[in-house]
Protein backbone atom coordinates (compact mmCIF):
# COMPACT_ATOMS: atom_id res chain seq x y z
CA UNK A 1 0.00 0.00 0.00
CA UNK A 2 1.50 3.35 -1.04
CA UNK A 3 1.12 6.36 1.20
CA UNK A 4 -0.05 9.59 -0.48
CA UNK A 5 1.42 12.54 1.38
CA UNK A 6 -0.88 14.99 -0.37
CA UNK A 7 -3.84 13.44 1.48
CA UNK A 8 -2.54 14.19 4.96
CA UNK A 9 -4.84 16.55 6.84
CA UNK A 10 -3.23 19.39 8.82
CA UNK A 11 -3.55 19.26 12.61
CA UNK A 12 -5.11 22.34 14.21
CA UNK A 13 -2.64 24.56 16.03
CA UNK A 14 -2.18 28.17 17.05
CA UNK A 15 1.17 28.35 15.31
CA UNK A 16 2.27 26.39 12.26
CA UNK A 17 5.72 26.15 10.72
CA UNK A 18 6.22 27.41 7.17
CA UNK A 19 4.74 24.96 4.68
CA UNK A 20 6.46 23.57 1.61
CA UNK A 21 5.17 21.52 -1.27
CA UNK A 22 5.64 17.75 -1.11
CA UNK A 23 6.43 16.19 -4.51
CA UNK A 24 4.20 13.38 -5.79
CA UNK A 25 5.25 9.81 -5.06
CA UNK A 26 6.24 9.30 -8.70
CA UNK A 27 8.89 12.05 -8.76
CA UNK A 28 12.28 10.64 -9.85
CA UNK A 29 15.53 11.38 -8.09
CA UNK A 30 17.48 14.08 -9.87
CA UNK A 31 20.54 12.71 -11.74
CA UNK A 32 23.61 13.14 -9.59
CA UNK A 33 21.50 14.17 -6.60
CA UNK A 34 21.90 12.76 -3.12
CA UNK A 35 20.06 9.47 -2.65
CA UNK A 36 19.50 9.67 1.10
CA UNK A 37 19.63 11.81 4.22
CA UNK A 38 20.43 10.65 7.74
CA UNK A 39 18.82 11.45 11.06
CA UNK A 40 19.85 10.95 14.66
CA UNK A 41 17.02 9.35 16.64
CA UNK A 42 17.25 10.29 20.31
CA UNK A 43 14.75 8.35 22.46
CA UNK A 44 14.50 8.63 26.26
CA UNK A 45 16.66 6.03 28.00
CA UNK A 46 18.37 4.82 24.81
CA UNK A 47 21.58 5.60 22.98
CA UNK A 48 21.13 7.78 19.85
CA UNK A 49 21.10 5.89 16.55
CA UNK A 50 21.38 6.85 12.89
CA UNK A 51 18.57 6.07 10.44
CA UNK A 52 18.48 6.52 6.67
CA UNK A 53 15.70 8.30 4.76
CA UNK A 54 16.11 7.34 1.06
CA UNK A 55 15.11 9.76 -1.69
CA UNK A 56 11.66 9.48 -3.18
CA UNK A 57 10.24 7.09 -0.56
CA UNK A 58 7.79 8.10 2.21
CA UNK A 59 9.18 6.96 5.59
CA UNK A 60 6.83 6.60 8.56
CA UNK A 61 7.87 7.21 12.17
CA UNK A 62 5.93 5.66 15.04
CA UNK A 63 5.52 2.95 17.66
CA UNK A 64 4.26 0.36 15.16
CA UNK A 65 6.66 -2.41 14.15
CA UNK A 66 5.49 -1.72 10.59
CA UNK A 67 6.88 1.85 10.70
CA UNK A 68 10.06 2.33 8.70
CA UNK A 69 11.53 4.23 11.69
CA UNK A 70 10.08 2.54 14.80
CA UNK A 71 10.42 4.17 18.21
CA UNK A 72 9.39 2.88 21.65
CA UNK A 73 8.39 6.23 23.15
CA UNK A 74 4.92 5.70 24.76
CA UNK A 75 4.00 9.31 23.90
CA UNK A 76 4.33 8.54 20.18
CA UNK A 77 1.41 7.27 18.07
CA UNK A 78 1.57 4.03 16.07
CA UNK A 79 2.15 6.03 12.89
CA UNK A 80 3.06 9.48 14.12
CA UNK A 81 4.89 11.36 11.34
CA UNK A 82 5.94 10.92 7.72
CA UNK A 83 9.32 11.99 6.30
CA UNK A 84 10.11 12.61 2.64
CA UNK A 85 13.48 13.39 1.03
CA UNK A 86 13.71 14.68 -2.54
CA UNK A 87 15.86 17.10 -4.52
CA UNK A 88 18.07 17.70 -1.50
CA UNK A 89 15.16 18.74 0.73
CA UNK A 90 13.81 16.82 3.72
CA UNK A 91 10.18 17.44 4.68
CA UNK A 92 8.05 16.18 7.56
CA UNK A 93 4.28 15.88 7.95
CA UNK A 94 2.13 14.88 10.87
CA UNK A 95 0.21 11.61 10.40
CA UNK A 96 -2.90 12.39 12.48
CA UNK A 97 -0.92 11.77 15.68
CA UNK A 98 -2.39 12.20 19.15
CA UNK A 99 0.31 14.54 20.53
CA UNK A 100 1.42 16.34 17.39
CA UNK A 101 4.68 16.79 15.50
CA UNK A 102 6.80 19.87 16.26
CA UNK A 103 9.57 21.63 14.36
CA UNK A 104 11.39 24.59 15.91
CA UNK A 105 8.66 24.74 18.57
CA UNK A 106 5.82 25.05 16.06
CA UNK A 107 3.28 22.32 15.44
CA UNK A 108 3.49 20.77 11.99
CA UNK A 109 0.36 20.35 9.89
CA UNK A 110 1.02 19.61 6.26
CA UNK A 111 4.55 18.90 5.07
CA UNK A 112 7.19 21.44 6.09
CA UNK A 113 10.87 21.55 5.20
CA UNK A 114 13.46 20.44 7.75
CA UNK A 115 16.65 22.48 7.55
CA UNK A 116 20.22 21.34 8.37
CA UNK A 117 20.68 20.33 12.02
CA UNK A 118 16.98 21.02 12.68
CA UNK A 119 15.23 18.89 15.32
CA UNK A 120 11.81 17.30 14.93
CA UNK A 121 10.06 16.51 18.22
CA UNK A 122 7.47 13.74 18.56
CA UNK A 123 6.49 12.95 22.13
CA UNK A 124 9.77 12.88 24.10
CA UNK A 125 11.76 11.73 21.05
CA UNK A 126 13.94 13.98 18.88
CA UNK A 127 14.82 13.39 15.22
CA UNK A 128 17.87 15.52 14.43
CA UNK A 129 19.12 15.89 10.87
CA UNK A 130 22.72 14.67 10.77
CA UNK A 131 25.56 16.31 8.86
CA UNK A 132 26.08 14.81 5.34
CA UNK A 133 29.42 13.31 6.34
CA UNK A 134 27.86 11.44 9.29
CA UNK A 135 27.50 7.85 8.21
CA UNK A 136 26.92 4.55 9.99
CA UNK A 137 29.54 1.85 9.60
CA UNK A 138 29.53 0.52 6.02
CA UNK A 139 28.76 -3.14 5.49
CA UNK A 140 28.74 -5.29 2.39
CA UNK A 141 25.32 -6.29 1.09
CA UNK A 142 26.05 -9.99 1.61
CA UNK A 143 27.22 -9.70 5.21
CA UNK A 144 25.39 -10.72 8.37
CA UNK A 145 25.37 -7.07 9.39
CA UNK A 146 23.14 -6.23 6.41
CA UNK A 147 20.51 -8.52 7.95
CA UNK A 148 21.02 -6.87 11.35
CA UNK A 149 20.36 -3.48 9.72
CA UNK A 150 16.74 -4.53 9.18
CA UNK A 151 16.34 -4.82 12.90
CA UNK A 152 12.57 -4.36 13.16
CA UNK A 153 10.08 -7.13 12.33
CA UNK A 154 8.05 -6.53 9.18
CA UNK A 155 4.41 -7.25 10.03
CA UNK A 156 2.00 -6.06 7.34
CA UNK A 157 0.46 -9.53 7.01
CA UNK A 158 -2.15 -10.38 9.68
CA UNK A 159 -0.37 -13.69 10.37
CA UNK A 160 2.77 -11.84 11.47
CA UNK A 161 0.99 -8.83 12.96
CA UNK A 162 -0.63 -11.07 15.59
CA UNK A 163 2.77 -12.50 16.56
CA UNK A 164 4.33 -9.04 16.82
CA UNK A 165 1.43 -7.78 18.94
CA UNK A 166 2.00 -10.64 21.38
CA UNK A 167 5.75 -9.99 21.36
CA UNK A 168 5.12 -6.35 22.29
CA UNK A 169 2.99 -7.50 25.22
CA UNK A 170 5.71 -9.88 26.40
CA UNK A 171 8.41 -7.21 25.97
CA UNK A 172 6.97 -5.27 28.91
CA UNK A 173 7.52 -8.28 31.19
CA UNK A 174 10.60 -10.19 32.36
CA UNK A 175 9.13 -13.55 31.35
CA UNK A 176 11.41 -15.98 29.48
CA UNK A 177 10.28 -16.52 25.88
CA UNK A 178 10.36 -19.50 23.50
CA UNK A 179 10.38 -18.45 19.79
CA UNK A 180 9.73 -21.20 17.26
CA UNK A 181 10.07 -20.97 13.47
CA UNK A 182 11.95 -21.98 10.38
CA UNK A 183 15.55 -20.90 9.77
CA UNK A 184 15.75 -17.24 8.65
CA UNK A 185 12.03 -16.69 9.27
CA UNK A 186 12.78 -13.75 11.58
CA UNK A 187 13.11 -15.44 14.98
CA UNK A 188 16.26 -13.52 15.89
CA UNK A 189 14.78 -10.21 14.74
CA UNK A 190 11.74 -10.75 16.94
CA UNK A 191 13.94 -11.69 19.90
CA UNK A 192 16.04 -8.53 19.52
CA UNK A 193 12.87 -6.42 19.31
CA UNK A 194 11.60 -7.94 22.56
CA UNK A 195 14.86 -6.94 24.28
CA UNK A 196 14.92 -3.48 22.74
CA UNK A 197 11.30 -2.69 23.68
CA UNK A 198 11.54 -3.95 27.26
CA UNK A 199 12.87 -2.51 30.46
CA UNK A 200 16.30 -4.10 29.87
CA UNK A 201 17.06 -2.23 26.64
CA UNK A 202 19.94 -0.30 28.21
CA UNK A 203 21.56 -3.50 29.46
CA UNK A 204 23.44 -6.12 27.41
CA UNK A 205 21.87 -8.43 24.86
CA UNK A 206 24.15 -11.48 24.73
CA UNK A 207 23.56 -13.85 21.81
CA UNK A 208 24.84 -17.38 21.37
CA UNK A 209 24.17 -19.77 18.50
CA UNK A 210 23.95 -23.24 20.04
CA UNK A 211 24.42 -24.82 16.60
CA UNK A 212 28.07 -23.70 16.56
CA UNK A 213 29.04 -25.24 19.92
CA UNK A 214 30.95 -28.52 20.09
CA UNK A 215 29.66 -31.41 22.18
CA UNK A 216 30.39 -30.90 25.87
CA UNK A 217 31.16 -27.19 25.39
CA UNK A 218 27.80 -25.66 26.24
CA UNK A 219 27.89 -25.99 30.05
CA UNK A 220 31.18 -24.11 30.36
CA UNK A 221 30.09 -21.43 27.88
CA UNK A 222 26.75 -20.92 29.64
CA UNK A 223 27.85 -21.09 33.28
CA UNK A 224 31.49 -19.97 33.11
CA UNK A 225 34.33 -21.70 34.89
CA UNK A 226 36.91 -21.39 37.65
CA UNK A 227 40.44 -22.43 36.83
CA UNK A 228 43.74 -22.63 38.70
CA UNK A 229 46.82 -21.46 36.86
CA UNK A 230 50.38 -20.40 37.67
CA UNK A 231 49.23 -16.86 38.40
CA UNK A 232 46.57 -17.99 40.87
CA UNK A 233 42.85 -18.52 40.59
CA UNK A 234 41.09 -17.19 37.51
CA UNK A 235 37.46 -16.89 36.41
CA UNK A 236 35.98 -17.20 32.94
CA UNK A 237 32.60 -15.49 32.83
CA UNK A 238 29.82 -17.46 31.20
CA UNK A 239 27.04 -16.16 28.97
CA UNK A 240 24.64 -15.80 31.88
CA UNK A 241 26.91 -13.54 33.93
CA UNK A 242 27.86 -11.49 30.86
CA UNK A 243 24.15 -10.82 30.29
CA UNK A 244 23.62 -9.63 33.89
CA UNK A 245 20.67 -7.22 34.02
CA UNK A 246 19.94 -7.77 30.33
CA UNK A 247 18.81 -10.53 28.00
CA UNK A 248 20.43 -13.84 27.06
CA UNK A 249 19.38 -15.03 23.59
CA UNK A 250 20.11 -18.71 22.95
CA UNK A 251 19.48 -19.54 19.30
CA UNK A 252 18.83 -22.99 17.83
CA UNK A 253 18.53 -24.90 21.10
CA UNK A 254 17.43 -27.92 19.02
CA UNK A 255 21.13 -28.69 18.58
CA UNK A 256 21.72 -29.07 22.31
CA UNK A 257 21.60 -32.35 24.21
CA UNK A 258 18.72 -32.93 26.67
CA UNK A 259 21.17 -32.34 29.54
CA UNK A 260 22.22 -28.98 28.08
CA UNK A 261 18.61 -27.91 27.60
CA UNK A 262 17.97 -28.84 31.21
CA UNK A 263 20.76 -26.43 32.22
CA UNK A 264 18.75 -23.63 30.58
CA UNK A 265 15.72 -24.66 32.63
CA UNK A 266 17.76 -24.59 35.84
CA UNK A 267 19.07 -21.08 35.15
CA UNK A 268 15.54 -19.79 34.49
CA UNK A 269 14.03 -21.56 37.47
CA UNK A 270 16.68 -20.79 40.10
CA UNK A 271 18.00 -17.43 38.88
CA UNK A 272 21.51 -18.57 39.76
CA UNK A 273 24.55 -20.29 38.24
CA UNK A 274 27.41 -22.33 39.66
CA UNK A 275 30.50 -21.97 37.42
CA UNK A 276 32.29 -25.18 36.52
CA UNK A 277 35.02 -25.98 39.04
CA UNK A 278 33.47 -23.69 41.65
CA UNK A 279 31.21 -24.46 44.59
CA UNK A 280 29.89 -20.94 45.11
CA UNK A 281 26.51 -20.19 43.50
CA UNK A 282 26.16 -16.82 41.78
CA UNK A 283 22.75 -15.09 41.80
CA UNK A 284 21.93 -13.54 38.42
CA UNK A 285 19.27 -11.24 37.01
CA UNK A 286 18.86 -12.31 33.37
CA UNK A 287 15.96 -12.66 30.99
CA UNK A 288 16.31 -15.77 28.81
CA UNK A 289 14.94 -15.96 25.26
CA UNK A 290 15.40 -19.15 23.24
CA UNK A 291 14.76 -19.90 19.57
CA UNK A 292 13.95 -23.27 18.10
CA UNK A 293 13.23 -24.69 14.65
CA UNK A 294 10.41 -26.88 15.93
CA UNK A 295 8.01 -27.27 18.87
CA UNK A 296 9.20 -29.15 21.98
CA UNK A 297 9.92 -32.77 21.12
CA UNK A 298 8.17 -34.14 24.20
CA UNK A 299 11.23 -35.54 25.95
CA UNK A 300 11.78 -34.73 29.61
CA UNK A 301 14.19 -31.84 29.14
CA UNK A 302 12.09 -30.06 26.53
CA UNK A 303 8.84 -30.59 28.39
CA UNK A 304 10.24 -29.20 31.65
CA UNK A 305 11.72 -26.18 29.85
CA UNK A 306 8.56 -25.59 27.86
CA UNK A 307 6.45 -25.78 31.03
CA UNK A 308 8.26 -22.69 32.33
CA UNK A 309 7.34 -20.79 29.18
CA UNK A 310 3.62 -21.47 28.92
CA UNK A 311 1.99 -18.26 27.79
CA UNK A 312 5.31 -17.01 26.38
CA UNK A 313 5.64 -19.18 23.27
CA UNK A 314 5.71 -17.42 19.89
CA UNK A 315 5.60 -19.07 16.47
CA UNK A 316 7.07 -16.98 13.66
CA UNK A 317 5.35 -18.01 10.39
CA UNK A 318 7.54 -18.56 7.32
CA UNK A 319 7.26 -16.04 4.50
CA UNK A 320 5.09 -18.37 2.41
CA UNK A 321 2.42 -18.03 5.12
CA UNK A 322 2.62 -14.20 5.18
CA UNK A 323 2.92 -13.06 1.54
CA UNK A 324 1.85 -9.50 2.38
CA UNK A 325 5.18 -9.02 4.20
CA UNK A 326 7.41 -9.79 1.21
CA UNK A 327 7.19 -6.50 -0.70
CA UNK A 328 7.54 -4.32 2.45
CA UNK A 329 10.56 -6.43 3.41
CA UNK A 330 12.14 -5.80 0.00
CA UNK A 331 11.50 -2.08 0.36
CA UNK A 332 13.06 -2.18 3.83
CA UNK A 333 16.24 -3.72 2.39
CA UNK A 334 16.32 -1.07 -0.35
CA UNK A 335 15.86 1.71 2.20
CA UNK A 336 18.66 0.37 4.41
CA UNK A 337 20.94 0.28 1.38
CA UNK A 338 19.96 3.87 0.47
CA UNK A 339 18.70 2.61 -2.91
CA UNK A 340 15.98 4.89 -4.37
CA UNK A 341 14.82 2.45 -7.05
CA UNK A 342 11.16 1.42 -7.16
CA UNK A 343 9.59 -1.93 -7.99
CA UNK A 344 7.66 -2.49 -11.21
CA UNK A 345 4.06 -3.67 -10.56
CA UNK A 346 4.85 -7.06 -12.09
CA UNK A 347 7.79 -7.45 -9.69
CA UNK A 348 5.61 -6.93 -6.64
CA UNK A 349 3.19 -9.59 -7.92
CA UNK A 350 6.04 -12.06 -8.58
CA UNK A 351 7.55 -11.48 -5.14
CA UNK A 352 4.24 -12.25 -3.45
CA UNK A 353 3.58 -15.34 -5.59
CA UNK A 354 6.94 -16.99 -4.90
CA UNK A 355 7.19 -19.39 -1.93
CA UNK A 356 10.57 -18.19 -0.52
CA UNK A 357 11.85 -21.49 0.93
CA UNK A 358 14.93 -19.61 2.18
CA UNK A 359 12.75 -17.01 3.95
CA UNK A 360 14.28 -13.61 4.79
CA UNK A 361 17.83 -14.48 3.72
CA UNK A 362 16.60 -15.53 0.28
CA UNK A 363 14.72 -12.24 -0.06
CA UNK A 364 17.88 -10.35 0.90
CA UNK A 365 19.96 -12.29 -1.62
CA UNK A 366 17.36 -11.92 -4.40
CA UNK A 367 17.03 -8.15 -4.03
CA UNK A 368 20.81 -7.85 -3.73
CA UNK A 369 21.14 -9.63 -7.08
CA UNK A 370 18.45 -7.41 -8.61
CA UNK A 371 20.24 -4.26 -7.41
CA UNK A 372 23.48 -5.42 -9.00
CA UNK A 373 21.97 -5.95 -12.46
CA UNK A 374 19.22 -3.30 -12.66
CA UNK A 375 20.20 -0.51 -15.05
CA UNK A 376 17.35 1.99 -14.60
CA UNK A 377 15.50 3.59 -11.70
CA UNK A 378 13.07 0.69 -11.54
CA UNK A 379 13.64 -2.99 -10.74
CA UNK A 380 11.88 -5.15 -13.33
CA UNK A 381 11.16 -8.87 -13.75
CA UNK A 382 14.30 -9.17 -15.89
CA UNK A 383 16.37 -8.14 -12.85
CA UNK A 384 15.07 -10.85 -10.52
CA UNK A 385 16.74 -14.27 -10.16
CA UNK A 386 15.12 -16.73 -12.58
CA UNK A 387 13.93 -18.97 -9.72
CA UNK A 388 11.85 -16.08 -8.35
CA UNK A 389 10.18 -14.80 -11.51
CA UNK A 390 9.79 -18.28 -13.07
CA UNK A 391 9.31 -20.51 -10.02
CA UNK A 392 7.39 -23.30 -11.76
CA UNK A 393 5.40 -25.75 -9.67
CA UNK A 394 6.04 -25.46 -5.95
CA UNK A 395 6.61 -28.81 -4.20
CA UNK A 396 3.98 -29.75 -1.65
CA UNK A 397 4.77 -30.29 2.05
CA UNK A 398 5.10 -34.08 1.72
CA UNK A 399 7.61 -33.69 -1.10
CA UNK A 400 9.61 -31.18 0.92
CA UNK A 401 9.72 -33.59 3.88
CA UNK A 402 10.84 -36.41 1.59
CA UNK A 403 13.65 -34.26 0.18
CA UNK A 404 14.73 -33.31 3.71
CA UNK A 405 14.78 -36.97 4.74
CA UNK A 406 16.86 -37.90 1.72
CA UNK A 407 19.35 -35.13 2.47
CA UNK A 408 19.68 -36.27 6.07
CA UNK A 409 20.30 -39.90 5.05
CA UNK A 410 22.96 -38.77 2.57
CA UNK A 411 24.63 -36.52 5.15
CA UNK A 412 24.65 -39.21 7.83
CA UNK A 413 26.14 -41.82 5.47
CA UNK A 414 28.83 -39.40 4.27
CA UNK A 415 29.88 -38.59 7.85
CA UNK A 416 29.97 -42.27 8.88
CA UNK A 417 32.13 -43.15 5.86
CA UNK A 418 34.54 -40.29 6.51
CA UNK A 419 34.85 -41.11 10.22
CA UNK A 420 35.40 -44.82 9.72
CA UNK A 421 37.93 -44.16 6.94
CA UNK A 422 40.02 -41.73 9.00
CA UNK A 423 39.31 -42.70 12.61
CA UNK A 424 39.46 -39.03 13.62
CA UNK A 425 36.93 -36.19 13.63
CA UNK A 426 39.37 -33.49 12.48
CA UNK A 427 40.63 -35.57 9.53
CA UNK A 428 37.05 -36.45 8.58
CA UNK A 429 36.18 -32.74 8.57
CA UNK A 430 39.09 -32.02 6.20
CA UNK A 431 37.93 -34.76 3.81
CA UNK A 432 34.34 -33.42 3.87
CA UNK A 433 35.63 -29.81 3.57
CA UNK A 434 33.50 -28.61 6.49
CA UNK A 435 34.42 -27.17 9.91
CA UNK A 436 35.22 -29.70 12.64
CA UNK A 437 32.35 -28.29 14.71
CA UNK A 438 29.91 -29.11 11.87
CA UNK A 439 30.93 -32.79 12.04
CA UNK A 440 30.48 -32.81 15.83
CA UNK A 441 27.01 -31.22 15.52
CA UNK A 442 25.99 -33.78 12.90
CA UNK A 443 27.28 -36.64 15.06
CA UNK A 444 25.19 -35.40 17.96
CA UNK A 445 22.13 -34.88 15.73
CA UNK A 446 22.28 -38.39 14.29
CA UNK A 447 23.28 -40.09 17.53
CA UNK A 448 26.75 -41.10 16.29
CA UNK A 449 28.99 -41.67 19.31
CA UNK A 450 32.74 -41.44 18.91
CA UNK A 451 33.25 -44.56 21.02
CA UNK A 452 30.69 -46.54 19.05
CA UNK A 453 32.44 -45.71 15.79
CA UNK A 454 35.88 -46.17 17.30
CA UNK A 455 37.12 -42.68 16.40
CA UNK A 456 38.98 -39.99 18.30
CA UNK A 457 38.01 -36.35 18.49
Write structural notes for this entry.
- The protein is α/β, with parallel strands linked by helices.
- The chain has four domains: 5-129, Sandwich (Tumour Suppressor Smad4); 153-316, P-loop containing nucleotide triphosphate hydrolases (Rossmann fold), CATH 3.40.50.300; 322-389, Helicase, Ruva Protein, domain 3; 398-453.
- The protein is built from 15 helices and 22 strands.
- It has helices at residues 144-149, 158-171, 187-196, 218-223, 239-242, 258-270, 300-308, 326-336, 345-353, 359-373, 386-389, 397-422, 425-432, 436-445, 450-453; strands at 36-42, 49-54, 59-62, 69-70, 81-86, 89-94, 101-103, 106-107, 112-114, 119-122, 125-129, 177-181, 205-209, 224-229, 232-237, 247-251, 272-273, 282-283, 287-292, 313-316, 342-343, 378-379.
- It is globular and about 75 Å long.
